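Work package 3, deliverable 3.1, input record:
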Amino acid sequence: MYSYLVLRVVAKLLMPFILLFALYVQFHGDFGPGGGFQAGVIFAAGFILYALIFGLQKAGRVLPRGILRFGIALGVLIFAGVGVYNLLVGGKYLDYSAMAQNPVHGQHLGILLVELGVGVTVASVMIMVFFTFARHRNTKGSD
Amino acid sequence: MTEHLAALQVVIPLLCAPICMLVRYRDWSWSVALFGSWSCLAISWLLLQQVMTSGVISYHMGNWVPPIGIEYRIDEINAFVLLIVSAIGAIVTPYARESVRAEFGVNRVYMFYTSYMLCLCGLLGVTITGDAFNLFVFLEISSLSSYVLIAMGKDRRALKAAYQYLILGTIGATFIVIGIGLLYAETGTLNMADLANKLSKNPINKTIGTAFGFLFVGISLKLALFPLHLWLPNAYTFAPSVVSAFLAATATKVAVYVLLRFLFTIFDIKISFGVLPLESVLLALSIVAMFVASVVAIFQPNIKRMLAYSSVAQIGYVILGISFININGLAAGIIHLFNHALIKGGMFLAVGCLFYKIASVNIDKLAGIGRRMPLTMAAFVVGGLGLIGVPLTAGFISKWYLIIGALDRGLWWAAVLILLSSLLAVIYIWRVVEVAYLKPSPDGNNHIEDAPPSMLIPTWVLIGSSIYFGINTDLTVGVAKQAARQLLGGG
């Protein structure tokens, strides 16, 4: 699809907005509808659009498999790690109130970090699933 | 830190999974898994001690008070199941090192340990949680990771087996979540203790009945109750050796625990066994499972498939014990959960040793192998004696209590059937013994010797403990009776 000028230009124009909107959904999740899962999916959708228009190779150069694999693991580590940190500072598991002097600040910080973990893992897994299926098709020679 | 043991039980394997993925060098991810599984065993042992001395442990996740927040609630029965699952995990991991290296491509080894840790996390989570929806989430974690683990088998048919399990497992999980959803609609709570409380006050209506039906069928699918066992033989046959041993010893046991939890704790016995003739249904299905699956096992050319069918039959014994609804029967079911986990886990590990050396698990390839690999085959035979229920093995203890339970209930014919079905086990074990010891070994097999110690020792630890718990029954019978009393008495 690389030869379609309109698609290329529109995709390039849309990309920053998609990613920005993903970040908005991510960080606005504490106050309104949104959160890590939705943000991760939107973020991944941006990259999938890029891969559809510019091809797998280019997309693969932007986000190599190693980074994705790292992201998948990192998100879970952030999530579980926040919980363990709460244990270490004297609260129950995932009791964010213990994270800061003021319990309300603690709750804010905790949910922000946990949702970040969710977002990172969801985005990485989504992109990884897409890449895996797309590459599989490529190797069969049907593309 | 002791107050947080309940959370750490699940969190440690959850943390180990991504770490296994990050340290991709094979032995490092193995060491992480080893650390994870052994610390789980230590924690579950401490939790069991704590429960036995000071009663139920309740842990509030995120300091949210139940029934709003998620509660981890540990009493005798789930402390015991936690111990079973984590002990099997801790014994299987050292074994996995050689076996996984041989059966997987080097660059896929870390994937195995990641999925394995997630599976352990899911199984422990299902067992420890006191929240019905949280139970579903952990059930999905363990199921999804076990689909992956099964699909890693060397044989291409492993993919088909994993897919079959995926479809049936998903149907089961969907039924469970529908049941939980209906209960939530009816009572407005997901906490198990709160659900039990509200259900006992509500009159039984169609919604509760439907929820019960969905839950019962969904859980029966997961625990492979005959005739919903169709996913099990292929899954166990084509999975990698370590995975067969781990899943056979843990996954169905945890599902049985879930059934106990729903039948006895959440729904009152009056609902579970009063509205439907569930007693007779369970009794009939378990007896059919004992016989049909044992007979099918006799005709299997593949040892792993034979053991898989034998597992279906053994689940029949467990469910039979539950269907008696008395202390001895229920205790027999719980004891057999433990004993069967040891025996079947050990036997699958022994078969894994065979596969490691001769790359086949077909019975006709085993001619004379008893003389070439004496320690491996001896483990298999001792495990087989346990399956049959020979005195001084753990299997005998389970059957002893099962028969007492049957007689307490006045079902003397059930006791006779238990003995008869044990004779079927003699036949399928003997088939292997005959080929392995009495047939001459083909000439090409001279170089074959026993599996390496790192694989033999875990195998013998499981088999040896099945003998130990056949002689010293303080732990198993003591805990199981207390758990049974609590399930029956606690409503």
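Chain B has a mean pLDDT of 89.
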